[in-house]
Amino acid sequence: MKASKLAELLGGRLEGEDVELIAAAGLEEAREGDVSFCKDSKHVSLVESTKASAVLLPEDWDKSLPSCVIRVKDPNLACMAAAKLFAPPEPKREPKVHPTAIIDETVKIGDAVHIGAYTIIEKGAEIGPGAVIEAQVFIGEGCKIGAGTHIYPQVTLREGTIVGKDCIFHCGVRIGGDGYGFVNGRRDDGTVYIEKIPQLGIVEIGDGVEIGSNTTIDRARIGRTYIGPMTKIDNLVQIGHNVKVKGYSGLIAQSGIAGSTEIGYGCLIWAQAGISGHIKIADGVQVGPQAGVPQSLDGSLKYVIGSPAMSMKDLASVTLAPKMIMKLKTELKALKAELLSKGNA
């Protein structure tokens, strides 16, 4: 594709050579024939050294220019759009049921559904119109899958799980397993016991939810574990029993939410953050990477970090305090030495 054609499709303005483009790539790994992007002038050195044939730059870029530039409003979004133009088309799943799939006769299947090889769907389940169920998926008794939902290989949906429409579950997602529910103690005779608490509830997933590979969501002890509409969950996230995520939130890799916690609308839980059980996170709060949240956050702080989680200002004061003390000790030692030397003079 010519750079001029790409500029037209992106609503941008071409400056320089009208080169031939075949792919999109980052500035550092780009090769001849690639289009790349930069949105921040602090990366001007990468723009100067890139091997990309064309670079998408902001309309107000006033730094050095490559031989082919396409000026756009938002280089990041424009590059994403360009990548889609160059990417090969995704595989299309035709409406059919593979002969190796094992489907109970009571299952209700909507129109234009694809069910892949070696998938198992147990009695009483319902699959909505246009859903795609890839190979080796397990769908337990009484599950309901909404229209247009796409479930990739080796996903497990335990009994009773409800899934909304237009969801995406990536490989290895596990929904509806038992949460950590045990009672332990010591009997009158001194022996220790640990007994399992039955996990009798379900998991319900709202419309437009996307769940990354190998994420687990536990069924409720009673009632439901709920993931609200348009929530986006990364790979390797753990969500405990009876958790409620109201919707339009993001949970990033290796974050963990303990049981019965409530996450508000529009929250963002960053990578490896841990949130204790039976607390509430207010709408719009962000929990920073590796933060530990032991108690409810009422929204007075919109971003917390550290363990226990606190504001950036408070964390900075806690982090800097030891350094300030060491500095004062060094200065005090030097001052004592100076006073002693003057006293001996």
Largest sheet data: 11 strands, parallel
Count, helices: 4
Question: What is the average per-residue confidence, as pLDDT, rounded to a whole number?
Answer: 94
Q: What is the helical fraction, as a range of percent?
A: 10-25%
Spatial strand order of the main sheet: 6-9-12-15-18-23-26-29-32-35-37
Name the beta content range.
25-35%
Which keywords apply here?
345 residues; single chain; eleven-stranded parallel beta sheet; alpha/beta; ten-stranded parallel beta sheet; 4 helices; 37 strands
Would you mind describing this structure in some detail?
The chain has 4 helices and 37 strands. Strand 20 and strand 21 (192-196) form a beta hairpin. The longest helix is centred in the C-terminal third of the chain and has 32 residues, at 312-343. By secondary structure, it is of the alpha/beta class. The chain is flat. The mean pLDDT is 94.
